[in-house]
Structures are given as structure tokens and as C-alpha cells.
Amino acid sequence: MKYIAVLMIIAAAGASFSAKKSYTLEEAVSTALENNNQVLASMETVKSAEGKVEESSSGFLPKFSLMGSYNYISSVPSMSINIPTGGTTSINKTIQTGVNDNWVFKAQLSQTLFDWGRMSDSNSAAVAGKEAVDLENAAVQNNTAHNVRQAFFGLIFAKETLKVSEESYKVSEEHLKNAEKKYKEGASSSFEVLRSKVQLSNLKPLVSKAASNLEMSKYNLKNVMGLPLVDEIEVAGEFKERPIKELDY
To answer: What is d(CA 56, CA 130) in angstroms, rounded to the nearest whole number?
Structure first.
């Protein structure tokens, strides 16, 4: 039992220290296009439409069929022949007029020359349906890529927000320590200490909310990418400052 418990602890530790998968924006988009449920369903619709086009196009091609059958006849008709050999003797010979094993093979080649335009109309409808499905599939992929970009930068924003909140909390903690120190030394009033405590107390829920928003942003990105929600992921990217260019009117 102790051995099993040790193994369970080691396995849990290994799972907790597993490396996180880091994604660039391009990798996140390509992963979503391979795993997102809506994209996969759209691709299946495209395959179905392609099958209908192939099926409707097959009517213009010649059709070749090959058939065969086998029949065993147990009682085959026969005839007897009496062959004289000279003198008073003769030879009786029985000859079968058929065979027991009967094989029949049949090959057929056909080509539709005119059907009042039914095949052409069916093929045109299938091609038009395929084009409509392709447009819908492109829209689904573009929408998925847009959602990935939005979730990707939303996660970066959540990370930066948490970082700023934690830094503000640390600065407020240091400010409170300095205010308490000055108060003990008689260089500051109790009001300054109280104000520092209130400021620190106000920042604490902001840090907690920023951490919660970060986790929600991760779940949102994993959901759009089609990844299991238990996976640990990171994003490789950051917000960069860009100079504002004057607009040309």
C-alpha cells in the first residue's frame, strides 16, 4: 500500500509540473482550424457536397456491368449408340448431351444519350450546392480565426491587467509599511496609515478579479481552439506601443 501511495504522489507531482504548451497567434489559428467543432462539422458538409457532385457526374459516364451464374444439373440427358463390329457383335456407347456444371457469364456496357436534361440539371444543382457550401465553410473558418484572434489578445490583455494589479498591490503594501514606520517614528499621522490600509484593501479584490479574468480568458481561448479545458496553455505575444500616424484626408 505504501508503494502504491508513493507512485500516486509521484504521478500527481508529474502532472502538476507538466510543461505548458505555448502558442503563437498563427499556431493558435491553425490549431483551431484543425480542432474546432464548428470547423470540423463544416468540413464534413463540404465532403458530403463533393460526394453529391461526384455522384451526379457519374451519370455522364458509360456503365459497365459483369454478371455470372452457376448451375449444377444432376441428371443430364444422354443417348445410346449401337456400333456394329462385324459378325454378330456390336458395341453400345452412351453419350451425354449436356454437362453437370453450367456457367453463364454476361457483360453489359451502356451509355445514356438523352434523358430530357435530368442528369444535367442534377449535376448543375449539385455543383451550385457545392459552391454554396464552400462559401459557408469559408465564412465559418474566417469567423473561427477572428474569434481566436479576439480570444488570443483578450488573454494577453488579461495577463497584463493581472500584472499591473499585482504591481499596484505591492506598491501599496510598501506604501503602508512606510506609513506605519513613519507613524511609529512620529513623522506621520494615523490618518496616513488608515488611508494606506484602505487603499490596499481596495486593491485586493481587483487582483482577485484580474486573476479570475485570466483563467476565464484561458478557458475561452482553449474552447475556440478546440482544446481540452484541462490543458495548460500559454500565449507567446505582447502588446507593443506604436506611434500614432497622422491620417491623410
So the answer is: 12
Q: Where is 95: in which H helix or E strand?
A: strand 89-96
**Alpha helices, DSSP H, located in the chain:** 2-16, 25-35, 37-57, 118-185, 190-225
Pairing mode, strands 101-110 and 63-72: antiparallel
**pLDDT for position 9:** 45
What distance in Å separates the CA atoms of residue 203 and residue 49, rounded to the nearest whole number? 57
Spatial contact of 165 and 200, defined as CB atoms under 8 Å apart: no
pTM, two decimal places? 0.66
| CA–centroid distance for 72 within its chain | 56
| Residue 66 near residue 106 (C-beta atoms within 8 A) | yes
Q: What are the backbone angles phi and psi of residue 103, rounded to the nearest 5°? A: -115, 140
Helix (H) or strand (E) holding 84: strand 78-86
Q: What is the DSSP letter of 74?
A: S
d(CA 207, CA 214): 11
Which of 110-124, 161-175, 203-217, 218-232 is predicted least confidently?
110-124
CB atoms under 10 Å from CB of 158, counted, come to 21
Rounded distance, CA 22 to CA 28, Å? 9
Q: What cell was used for 147?
A: 474569434
Strand partners, 96: 78
In angstroms, the CA 117 to CA 127 distance is 15
State the Cα–Cα distance between residues 197 and 68, nearest whole angstrom. 96
Distance (Å, rounded) from C-alpha 150 to C-alpha 155? 9
* Of 157, 174, 155, 167, residue with least CA distance to 206: 167
